[in-house]
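Input chain follows. Return structure tokens only.
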Amino acid sequence: MAIGTQDDSDAMLSEINMIPFIDVMLVLLIIFIITVPVIKHTVAIDLPQASNQKVVDKPENVRLSVDASGAYFWNETRVEDADLEQQLAAAAARQPQPELHIRGDKAARYERVALALAAAQRAGLRKIGFITEPAVP
């Protein structure tokens, strides 16, 4: 054997070795063969059809409005300050308890809105929200 001589055995191989690809494909095939029956393992049951409607006993929302002069309105009906706490207590005693939506005019004094909020909390109303207008761009 002579050093430095070239023959055909030293030429580079330019073909792709397919054996590792075939091994990977066979492993994936075995994994899929094992996992597919586990995924599809269900019992076929013909369930009966029924139409039922969920009955929700939702109370009417109470709207308490405060206008620019500071007057209170209970669902668009004017209420005096002395009667407001009685109305709030009566609403708190109802089952299920209604939501109180407070709508305050932006020109109204904050004190009047805060007094209404405090009266509602003292009466025991748990669901109190504020109604606002969306900002116009």
